[in-house]
Amino acid sequence: MIAKTSTCSLLGIDAILVEVEVDIASGLPGLSVVGLPDNIVKESKDRVKAAIQNSGYPFPFERITVNLAPAALKKEGAGFDLPIAVGILAAMGLVNADKAAKMVFCGELALDGRVKPVAGCLPMAIRARDSGYTDMVLPADNAREAAVLTQTGGRPAREADGQPGSGDSPPGASFSVRPANHLSEVVEYCNGRSELPVLKTDPNTLWRVDVAEDLDFEDVKGQEHAKRGLEVAAAGNHNVLMIGPPGSGKTMLAQRVSGILPPLSFEEALETSTVYSVAGLLNNTPLIARRQFRAPHHSISDAGLVGGGQIPKPGEVSLAHNGVLFLDEFPEFRRNVIDLLRQPLEGGQVTIARAAIALTYPARFMLIGAMNPCPCGYSGDPVRPCSCSPATVTRYRGRISGPILDRIDLHIEVPAVKYEQLRSEGQAEKSACVRERVTKARRIQLERFPDEGIYSNSQMRPKHLKKFCRLDEAGQSMFDKAVRQLGLSARAYHRILKVARTIADLEASENIGSVHLLEAIQYRSLDRKMF
Ligand SMILES: Nc1ncnc2c1ncn2[C@@H]1O[C@H](COP(=O)(O)OP(=O)(O)O)[C@@H](O)[C@H]1O
Ligand SMILES: [Mg+2]
Prior knowledge:
The chain is of the alpha/beta class.
């Protein structure tokens, strides 16, 4: 007898619906899986057999053929165990075949029949729902990742961005996710002998409340210039490079930037959560509510940074999607690793070549780099002498290639804090206040670019600069003079205009004035000094 059921396979951050056909026929006993399975899917045979037997069901002593369709798609991962086991039992008449054919199953099986978590539950559930299925079984250990599809009252209410729940029923209102712990539970449910309770989600608990909020700008003493620079960067989504001696607070400042970025929109949260689900890092939470801060070590591998590997996984650039990618000790990263950042910085995504197919992961992030001015760290320091030769200093700075430097709009100098400042009791501004200003400036940008296909000042191309960054006569002549006197390049010229636009937006000023330009020019001073 032939039985059919369905499952999903990951392709990048999307999932593809896969049909599982099982045929049991007389012949030499054995189990073969056809339809381009990878090694992990092939090993499924042994796990499925043990799981079925150890759950108390007989395993057929006949020839079993499992076909995974579409055959042209390479099947990866261990999530096929459960659908294959259900399919075999259905072909044997031990599971209601009609019921199994109408459902989607994903899950890895342990030898004793327990259902183990799989990566990518969120995109898989979205695919199942969009393909018209209404019933899906997922591993109990991470089924909650699909909770956003099963919420009861429309969009979640959020106080943070002032968008109350819209109340409209999402398309998934009739979509049921059923968490399962054991193969036998699934069999009993399909046969109508017991219920497999559906996952219910209260929209108000959908957003993960992150305790990491305790990293606040107010902890950083002094450094007003650096904080202002980071505020401007956050407001226009500009990439920044912080330069200063060791211990001046660069790492500390960077760690607090995701806290001054505007809250994630529902769509952004869904995008980021999907990446984490595929990476197996969502940890059974429904949605990520906070902009992520990723700080990979400089010894990171190529695949670790941009994604890929034996079982393809998103890399750090994708885990930072809609958030911050912080590269501390920037020049310590291998040059070719840094150069890999060019594609995501340019296009907001990464493409990874696989055997017959290219996978794409989203990777739109704000880049923050931090570096010492030289290997010893004290070049240009007013107090401590620098022990590096000029040649070493030049070589050290040369490690950051031009094309990457080209995509960094602001250079922020972070000098050592004075002792008096460090022990002063003065109250610094809280992240929440800064975030409010940043959010307002971002809103102005969203309204500015509705037809341009971009959403922040950092993405402006020359035609946008012409349209949105006009200077008045006084501003233009001041700018011309500054460019000539400081010997700024054409590259710096465009960066300054974009940053000046953001500074004007922070003041809700329609025109870019001389003050805005002057401040923006400050953030390029290192061009001449250092590179
Ligand atoms: N401006 C500051 N305000 C408060 N503490 C600071 C400041 N700068 C540095 N520190 C202290 O010094 C430590 C080292 O700072 P860090 O951010 O690691 O410096 P860097 O990354 O520039 O080498 C911090 O953990 C913090 O305790
Ligand atoms: Mg540091």
